[in-house]
Amino acid sequence: MKYTQIKNEIILASKSKVRREILEKNNIKCVVFNSNIDEDPIKESLTKEGASPEVISKNLAEIKATKVSRANENRLVLGADSVIDLDNTVISKPTNRTEALKILMKLNGKKHHLISSVSICKNGSMIWNHTDKAELTMKNFTENELREYLKNITDEKLYAYNVYQIEGEGRNLFANIEGDENTIMGLPIKKIKEYLKNYE
Question: Which residues participate in catalysis according to the annotation?
Answer without folding.
Answer: 81
